[in-house]
Amino acid sequence: MARRGKRGATLQEIAQEIGVSVATVSRVARGVGQVSDDTRRRVLAAIERHDFRPSRLGSGLAKRSHGALGIVFPGLSGPYYSEVIGGFEEEAVRAQLAVVILGTHLLRESDELVRDTAARVDGLAVMGGVLPDDVVDRLRDRGDPVVLLASRPRAGVPTVRVENVSAFDRLTRHLLADHGYDRLAFVGDPGSSPDADYRWQGFTQAHRHAGAGAPAEPVRVGLTQSEGFIAVNRLLAAGPPPRALVCANDETAIGAVLALLDRGHRVPQDVAVTGFDDIPMAGLPVSGLTTVHQPMRELGRETARLLLRDIEGTVPAAVDRVLETQLVIRGSCGCGVA
């Protein structure tokens, strides 16, 4: 049956028409999962009636016809991305699948690039903040398995993330209560990613718990070492430094430390510095960075495992997997320093 001029029906529209869930239509369309014979017949009849994506139906997709998983990040540089990709690749290789990696760098044509990538892989992991919600919805509606990584939970889309808010609350309260620091600055841009936004929430929450006034605005900066160095240099040039710089990630924190040392400030005696991630460089004696450990490689592994289950039709769409984080105390906050 040839397509008419208007667009074909979506999974959601077919599901509404015959009174079943979107997940049921997706399972039938992909030839996977447990569905009753009567329901399967009704779904297949509706699929035929609407000529719904025939190239994606049946056992071809169930057998992973492309032999690859896709993963989408805003960029690819830095230890965080390499660790997450490493864990994701481990699970893909175990399943005998290749990995297609897309760094969008937030280009204007990112949406089209991602949709093209989704058509060339069996399932797609997308980092939070890379795509607008409506693009994610369209991918799911057309039957593409999609898992969100390091994202806000979204209805109907499986999500894997780490615990950010309470971790950053604990870190900030350590500086406020245990060290008695009274002037803290958050170094990072809450608008750049869901993770950064959650950490800013934890930072302000800790001030409320401590009965202290939080800064109205963060020091807005990207998440790279060079951006941290430049931003903190500008902050120091503008006036006296805060007593502690609470950075959104370790790379920014290391850039902040270099900027402080470059201007003759001692860390932590003059200015304490903390990060988030616990990248390998954070644990070196020369760095000694107080931070929050997040299981970056496990984040990648769990994302791939959940995506493989989504491809097979065995994962609930509402799943929101949150991995635990851990406060790591080293010398940069002032602990153990006379």
From TrEMBL:
Pfam families associated with the record: LacI, Peripla_BP_3
Keyword line: DNA-binding, Transcription, Transcription regulation
Record InterPro entries: HTH_LacI (IPR000843), LacI/GalR-like_sensor (IPR046335), Lambda_DNA-bd_dom_sf (IPR010982), Peripla_BP_I (IPR028082)
DNA-binding among keywords: yes
Gene Ontology MF annotations: DNA-binding transcription factor activity; transcription cis-regulatory region binding
Domain spans labelled HTH lacI-type: 9-63
Classification via CDD domains: HTH_LacI (cd01392), PBP1_LacI_sugar_binding-like (cd06267)
Protein name, per record: LacI family transcriptional regulator
